[in-house]
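Discussion board: Methods & Data

I've been asked by a reviewer to show the raw model output for two of the constructs in my manuscript, not just the figures. I'm not sure how much to include, so I'm pasting the format here to get opinions. Each protein appears as its amino acid sequence followed by a line of discrete structure tokens. Is this the kind of thing reviewers expect to see in a supplement, or should I convert it first? Here is construct A:
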Amino acid sequence: MRRIPLATGTPLLAALLLALPVLANAQQVQQADTGWQGKVHAPQYKETIFPPWQHGANNPALNKGLEFTVPEVNDLPDFHGDLDHPKLVIFVAGNYYFAMAPLVQAFEKEHPDFKGRVFYETLPPGILLKQMKAGGTITVGNMTWTVKPDVYAAGLKKIEAGIHDGVLTGKAISYVSNDLTIMVPKGNPAHITGLADLGKPGVTLSMPNPAWEGVARQIEASLKKAGGDALEQAVYDTKVKNGETTLTHIHHRQTPLYLMQGVAQAGVTWKSEAIFQEQAGHPISNVPIPADQNTTAIYAAAVVKGAAHPKAGLMWAEFLRSPTALKIFERYDFKPVSAHKPG
């Protein structure tokens, strides 16, 4: 093909030169609009790795009507049951969302008049408190509803603070404790051996957000035990800024998702959550944290001030420390509170 030489002063070349910035800008806009840095591809995933993971077992409603759940699109894994005239509403920190189904089933067995009339939420404790301060009203996507809790369950310190602030009433009823672990993909491809490895450059992490997850405080304490302020700063400051630490937006439910999706190589969670993931058949494992570096949390519950069903709320709180409930908690390596002191 014959080439036509272009002088810098020709109208054609001038037009091309003028068009280059426009074309480049259009390309940048196109990339920005994709939301995926210009890399557009069809989703390729196994639906089973997305919550809800208990295949409907966590919904205590008797009449489920049309069942319509689409992973990543229409999915409300932290809201359980029927909002139509519940007799017991539980707000429980998401630390043991996986244990709630068998707990509610056992409670209903002991109290048949509650069957199908229990509604519960398993959001992070800080977010649940915000919902309570908003009068129980919450919006998820295009849906808004109002539900006020009868009982609130979270870490013992948060329950005691709620009683002090007048949000909760009565006494704090403690029942089980939990320890931390390092959750990793099955096979531990990043060869994580302990907390110190989380500070290494290049190791990508999924960590609970300190803004609304109480577990972040326990994790920060453990990081300092293992590597001082330098390790805590590396994980929760330096790596957050350079993108190697991804902070969760919901709660620890996101960490196993990030591990299975390859977004992260490790993340600190409660040991019970790693055990549940393994029991669910997900490719998840964990690296134990030594006792001298670990931090223990004690869980407690209390009745919410002004609750519509305070007697039912107290019944649930007392049930949580019953032999029946403790046996369920033991499946996920929770310990009765008498076996631990706060970390």
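Construct B, same format:
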Amino acid sequence: MDVETVRQRPRVEGGREEEILDATVAVVAELGYDRLTMDAVATAAKASKATLYRRWSTKAELVVDAISRAKGCPMPEQVDTGSLRGDLIAMSCGDGGFMDEVPMSVMAGLFTALQHDAELKRAVQERFLAPRLGLVTEVYQRAVRRGEIAPDVDIELITTTLPAVIIYHAFVLGIEPTDDLILRVIDNVILPAARGSQAS
């Protein structure tokens, strides 16, 4: 099933959809993706399985929709503070950023499943990661247009560097992300790399 087909599935009326998405986030954080079932989400959301299946045909669709749109893990808003540093800070800190407890706990529950579940991996890449990377890419491209960073910088690589470092600290080293850590990565890794030959 392609992304456009998923988008066209009927929505749940009223505020019930948000309640179901919130319940899904909570169940993923508690049980992990592999142990999550539609029954568990239906119970947590006080909804019927029929309601869930009318909107989401698989648990992969439900989970990705939940982490993409539920409270605590929103799509970050496009920002333009006038500087690359300001934009990165605005997008990386606060609600929906790396300091948000819900996204990190949810991603912890998904990491193992992403290694062996092709459907989940594809859905996460298309529905969750792609739009967010698109926003970050625009931030860097705008910085290039302003002449703030070198035009030959590998934007595709650098857009993934900050989240990669934060995820490594959180899930490999067991160090909780903080604003200080994010600022250190931005100031000591991202900005020097983004300036490229202009830094000399």
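Answer (T.O., handling editor elsewhere):
This is acceptable in a supplement if you add a one-line summary per construct. For B, something like: The radius of gyration is 18 Å.
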